[in-house]
Amino acid sequence: MTKRAVCPGTFDPITNGHLDIIERAAKVFDEIYVCVLNNSSKSPVFTVEERVELIKQSTSHIPAVRVESYQGLLMDYAIDVKADAIIRGLRAVSDFEYEMQITSMNRVLNENIETFFVMTNNQYSFLSSSIVKEVAKYEATIDDLVPAPVAVALKEKFRSNE
């Protein structure tokens, strides 16, 4: 029986921390659906389509990964793709309270889909998409923070906004 997981996020942009979580989840699950969600409380630098493409390029070495976008509730998407689990990365204790609220709500929506928390690799514990964008905006080196296609895209994006 195929075990399928959804790894959701805004991914604006995907970082090496996100990629590490996806790679590790792919060792446990047969299929990983990376689901790009549009967070209405954020102002993204990249369009949903650009984010999907950057994630596809960044995860092309992982055969089990599929990348899609979704408008709506994560749990509806998880049901649509027949997921067994949702993968959530935790960087620090400060992430836990927020993630626990989401997980509790998801259990109310569908108690049959489990949430698995994956602790971020220590080398990425400080890393967030917001930090990467801020550093990239000032043309600092981001090559060790994001996959190569993202570094190129961020440099182009901020160059074109000048």
UniProtKB/TrEMBL annotation:
The record marks 18 as: Transition state stabilizer. It is an enzyme of class 2 (transferase). GO terms for biological process: coenzyme A biosynthetic process. ATP binds at residues 10-11, 18, 89-91, 99, 124-130. Pfam families: CTP_transf_like. The keyword Phosphoprotein does not apply. Residues 6-134 form the Cytidyltransferase-like domain. It comes from the Bacteria. It is found in: Cytoplasm. HAMAP family: PPAT_bact. Homohexamer. This is Phosphopantetheine adenylyltransferase. It comes from Mangrovibacillus cuniculi.
